[in-house]
Amino acid sequence: MLHPSYTDLMKVVNKDVEEGETKVVNSRYSIVMATAKRAREIIDGSMPLVDTKPGEKPLSIAISEMNQGKITILAEEEAAKLAELEAKQAEENAEEDFLNIQEEDSEKDAEAVEAVEAVEESEDNE
């Protein structure tokens, strides 16, 4: 038997849902998909958010994380908003990086022009 059970995990995930609101998770499938996704992240090198035992499998770690409330499952609308926000932030970061690179290149160009002028001036003085 799986410990914690699916119903226990569903209670943890839905604990902040007010009565009458739509639950975040209504099925075992959502629990399975979320823990499997998190297990893949752990396999890919993401650090566990809970204490682990030597040799503990990624899926067991993901289940522990969910049971302890360290990971959450977002409703579709929330996930879409988060993805949009992350995309906007990434675009702003890329633009800022581009401007910083341009600024650095301008400074290097100015230094190069000064160096060339200094060489030309020293040649004229000879």
Major sheet characteristics = none
- Tell me the overall shape: elongated
User: Number of DSSP strands?
Assistant: 0
The helix fraction, in percent, is: 55-70%
One letter per element, helices H and strands E, the order comes to: HHHH
Give the oligomer, counting copies of the same chain as homo and different chains as hetero. single chain
Sheet/helix structural class: mainly alpha
Unreliable stretches: none
Mean pLDDT: 81
Beta-strand share of residues: under 5%
Distance between the first and last residues' Cα:
91 Å
Provide a count of the helices: 4
Rg to the nearest angstrom? 27 Å
What does this structure look like?
67% of the residues lie in helices and 0% in strands. It is an all-alpha fold. Helix 2 (28-43) packs across helix 3. The mean pLDDT is 81.
Question: What labels would you give this structure?
Answer:
mainly alpha, elongated
Give a short overview.
By secondary structure, the chain is mainly alpha-helical.
Topology:
Layout: H1 6-13, H2 28-43, H3 58-67, H4 76-125
